[in-house]
Amino acid sequence: MASTPGVPLYDTDRYPQSLKAYLDHCEKDQCTSDFISRTLPDILANPCLFPFGYSVMIACLGNIDREILAQLHLKHPGVLVDNEVVEPSSQQLQKYRELVSQEPNLDFVNFTWNEMTTTEFEEHWRQKNITKKADFIHMVQVLYYVEDAEATISFFHSLLNKNGKLLIIIGAENGWMGLPIFIISKTFQHQLDAKWHPSKTVSPAVIKSLLNARGIPFKTYKLQSRVNVTPCFTEGDGTGELLLDFLTHVQGFSEMASPELRQEVLTVLRGCSVVQNGRVMANDYINAIVINSLD
Ligand SMILES: C[S@@+](CC[C@H](N)C(=O)[O-])C[C@H]1O[C@@H](n2cnc3c(N)ncnc32)[C@H](O)[C@@H]1O
User: Fold this and answer.
1) Pfam families given for it (predicted)?
2) pTM for the whole thing?
């Protein structure tokens, strides 16, 4: 039976639910949290960093972004942080606003809410002729969605103050976004929106060669992670369907896919996994790239 064309998940209301199911089943947040609590403090320790307390956060979701702000505060307790939040989804932005408004420990931060994409933010910056420089910028699991990742990195890097840092957290080639992209490239490339075609997708290797070509100093850290994909193997399981939507980045994947295609995806998924205590765990790893300013 032929499959019907897939609707790219990112453009639909199902994206936040599907992302949440994915995050609930992976160790990504845990390994990123470990990096933020164990390694980031040393990166932020330079007393020259953060003279003005101006930071930019690209895309927001919750715990990870708050933990980064908390570490900034621990290392630079006297500094009032001016934090630009750039997030195009009104739903995500609203959720994050509610989260931080209930958090008394974030009273050292003044948030500016920018409901826009990184490209729109860049236009806004240029139109207003803003000359402010940022001490710290972070982009956690977001570069896959921007229109032109290289241009985005170059623009935000150009905003860095002397001694400033740009932190990028991104899945490895066969990491958390690498996994769905791998599946997509094998099975859906003719049926999906072009923005999810793997050749258009940024990877840590692309970022590193961009930085090397421009002589920009950086350091990378590899973080180990896994995803529990067990529910995907129970047909009709609601969580499994949300996970499959996220892994393939197709809304209602099981409805659009023929039984053969669904089986093919599950076979690929099992091939990336190990079975441990009855759970099917897909292997995953993440890169943290800390980029320095060109002083
Ligand atoms: C996988 S989530 C990561 C969120 C958060 N930083 C984290 O790791 O917990 C990706 C986020 O990128 C946002 N996003 C998508 N396209 C974007 C763009 N062009 N510019 C900025 N953010 C974007 C999405 O709305 C979503 O909130």
Assistant:
1) Methyltransf_23 (PF13489)
2) 0.82
